[in-house]
Design a protein that fits this description.
Blueprint: H1 2-11, H2 15-18, H3 21-31, H4 49-56, E1 63-71, E2 77-85, E3 89-98, E4 126-134, E5 138-143, E6 149-152, H5 155-163, H6 167-190, E7 195-198, E8 201-208, E9 211-216, E10 221-226, E11 231-239, E12 263-264, H7 280-288, H8 293-300, H9 306-309
Helix pairs in contact: 3-6, 3-8, 4-5, 5-7, 6-7
Length: 317
Amino acid sequence: MMRTAILTLRATPYLLLLYPVACTLERAETAEQDATAAPSPARAAPTTREGFLSELAPLPADTLIVVYRVSGPAGLSGTMELLARRGGYRRENWVVRLAPSSDEELIPPNDQPRDAPQIDAPGHTVEVRSANIRTPEMVWSGREGRPGLRQAAPWGDLALAYLQLGPNAQGRVTATLRRWHADLETGRRESPGENDRVLDTDCTVIRSTGRSMCLWESAGIVLRHTSPELSLEATSIQRDVELGEHAFDRPRESELPSHLTVTSSSSSSSSSPSVPSFDAPDILRRLAQGRYGAVATLLAGGSPLPALAGRAHPSTN
C-alpha cells in the first residue's frame, strides 16, 4: 500500500496542471463554428507578450493562491499550495508526509538515483517536498534537493510569433481568442453538468473509473480530487494576491548539489515528448480565420492522463 501511495505521488504533481484540459478541449470542439474570418475586437488587441498570453490563458483574477489538504493511504498526509497567474503560469508546492513500514524505502520521483534515506523503524515519518512549475516556455517538476525534469512548452513561441504579426492580423487573432473563451463560458452556462461548490466557488464534477474531481472551469483549477490512492481538497482560495517576481522560477543549478545537473528533455518544443509538434504561424493563421480548435488541441497535448484528456464532458455528448 505504501509503495502504491509513493508511486501515485510521482504522477500526481501533474494532476492540477493538466487535468483541466478535459473540459476545455471538449467544450472547444463542440462550440467551434465553421471557419470564417474573425472580426476586429471591440477592445484594442494586445501589443505585448504578456498581453497576448493573458488573452490566451485568462483567469477570474489576476492571480490566485489555492491551498489544499492532502491525504491518502498508509498515513500519507500533507498540503499543496497552488499559485496561478494569468498567461499560463502555475506553480504547485507540495509538502507530503509519509509513514513507510520498516521493509520499504522511499521511491524517488522521475526515476532519479536511489539515494533516498532508508527507513529503519516502523512509524518513522518522512517529509517530501517537491514543486511543479508551468510557464509559457517550460514545464518543470522535481523534488527538493534533486535536479528535476524540465520540458519545453509552446506558448512562449506562440506569443513571439503573434508579436511579429501586423495590427490587423493581431486584431483578428485576438477576436477569435475572445470568442473562444466566450463560447466556453456559454457552454458552461447552457450545459453545466453536475455542479458542486467548494469554498463558495462553483465547480463541475467529473467522474471516471472510481475517481472524481471538482473543476473550477473558468480558472482551470481542480478544487477537489478523490481517488483510492490520493485525495486533495482546497481549504483556502485567495484572489489578486501579490506574487513575487520569481514565483514561477525553477531552482537554479547553483542551488542543487554539485554532482547533480538539471536535465532537459529537449531544447526545442517541437521534439519534446510532452509537447506536440506545432507550427506557431499556422496556428495564428487559423485563429485569424476564426478557427480556435488548434489552440485547444495545443493546450491538451501531452497530457499524462490520456483517458481523461480525451473524455467528453458528460453534458455535451
